[in-house]
Design the sequence.
C-alpha cells in the first residue's frame, strides 16, 4: 500500500482551492486526517492566498494542473520525498476539456498505483437512473462518460473508487450579488414553475468525499447522489426573504431566456431540471449524515444574514 513516510497514506486533492476540493480538504482536516494521512493540495499557484492558508494548516502543496496529469503524480512524488499517492479526490471544471482531463487523471492514477479514487460527478435522476442516463446536457454527459471510464479502468480491483453525484449547488446563489446568480435564480423561477429542485451545500459534498477517503472499505464501489434539500423556487425565495429581508436577486426573464438560448449547456440543464430533474434519496442521505444542511440553514450560515 502506498504511504507517505512509510506511515501515512497520502491523499491528492484536485481543485483544493475551489468549491468541492476545498470542501473536501476542510472536511478531512475537521475529521483529524492530518494525524493519520498526508494531505496534498493541487494548485497552479502555491503563492496564492488560499494555497498559503492550506499550507499553514499543514497541507502540502503540489504545483500543477490537469493539463499534464502524469506530471501531477511526479510532482506529488517529489513532495512526498519518493512516497506515492494512496488516494485521489477528482473534480474537473465543466468545459471542452473536462472529459479529456477527467479520463487522463483516472489513467494517471491507475498508472501510479493509486489505491482509492473519489470522483465527483453529477446526479442524473437518482442512484438507479444515473448510471444509464447520460442526458442531453453536455457537461452531464461528459461526467457520465468519465464515470464509465473510471469503472472500466478500475476493473479487476486495479483501483477502488467512489462516485459522488451532487445536485445543484446552493453556492450558485452566492453569486446573486452578481449577474451569474441573478440569471440562475431567474432561470429557476421561469422554467420550473412549482416543480421542486434539489439543492446541496458543497460542504456536504466534502463530507461524503472525506468519509469515502477515510473509510474506504465502507464506500468502495458506491455511487451516491448527494442532496441536502428540495423545494420550489417560491419556497426557496420565501425562506430567503424571511432570513435576509429581501427576495433573491433576479434579472430580466427575457434576458435570461436569451442567455439560456445562447449558452446551450445552461439552457439544456435548466430544461432537464424541468423535464426530468434530480433524484437523490434525501431520507437515506440524512440517515447517513444527519448534519446535512437545509437551504434555510445554508442561508443563515453562508453569510447572507447580516
Sequence:
Amino acid at each position: 500500500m502506498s504511504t507517505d513516510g512509510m506511515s501515512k497514506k497520502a491523499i491528492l486533492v484536485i481543485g483544493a482551492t475551489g468549491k468541492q476540493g476545498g470542501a473536501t480538504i476542510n472536511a478531512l482536516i475537521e475529521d483529524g486526517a492530518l494525524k493519520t494521512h498526508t494531505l496534498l493540495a493541487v494548485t497552479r499557484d502555491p503563492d496564492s492566498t488560499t494555497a498559503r492558508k492550506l499550507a499553514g494548516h499543514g497541507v502540502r502543496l503540489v504545483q500543477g494542473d490537469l493539463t499534464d496529469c502524469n506530471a501531477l503524480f511526479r510532482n506529488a512524488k517529489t513532495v512526498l520525498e519518493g512516497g506515492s499517492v494512496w488516494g485521489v479526490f477528482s473534480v474537473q471544471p465543466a468545459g471542452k476539456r473536462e472529459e479529456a482531463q477527467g479520463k487522463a487523471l483516472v489513467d494517471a492514477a491507475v498508472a501510479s498505483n493509486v489505491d482509492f479514487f473519489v470522483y465527483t460527478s453529477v446526479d442524473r435522476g437518482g442512484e438507479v437512473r444515473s448510471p444509464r442516463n447520460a442526458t442531453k446536457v453536455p457537461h452531464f454527459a461528459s461526467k457520465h462518460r468519465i464515470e464509465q471510464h473510471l469503472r472500466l479502468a478500475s476493473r479487476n480491483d486495479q483501483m477502488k473508487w467512489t462516485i459522488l453525484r451532487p445536485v445543484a449547488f446552493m453556492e450558485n446563489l452566492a453569486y446573486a450579488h452578481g449577474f451569474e446568480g441573478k440569471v440562475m435564480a431567474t432561470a429557476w423561477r421561469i422554467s420550473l414553475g412549482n416543480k421542486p429542485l434539489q439543492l446541496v451545500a458543497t460542504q456536504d459534498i466534502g463530507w461524503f468525499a472525506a468519509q469515502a477517503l477515510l473509510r474506504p472499505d465502507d464506500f468502495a464501489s458506491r455511487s451516491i447522489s448527494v442532496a441536502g434539500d428540495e423545494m420550489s423556487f417560491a419556497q426557496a425565495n420565501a425562506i430567503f426573504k424571511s432570513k435576509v429581508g429581501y427576495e433573491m436577486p433576479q434579472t430580466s426573464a427575457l434576458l435570461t431566456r436569451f442567455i439560456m438560448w445562447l449558452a446551450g449547456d445552461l439552457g439544456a440543464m435548466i430544461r432537464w431540471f424541468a423535464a426530468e430533474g434530480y433524484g437523490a434519496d434525501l431520507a437515506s442521505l440524512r440517515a447517513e449524515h444527519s448534519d446535512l444542511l437545509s437551504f434555510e440553514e445554508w442561508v443563515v450560515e453562508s453569510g447572507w444574514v447580516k
Observations:
- The CA atoms of residues 86 and 114 lie 5 Å apart.
- The first strand starts at residue 9 and ends at 13.
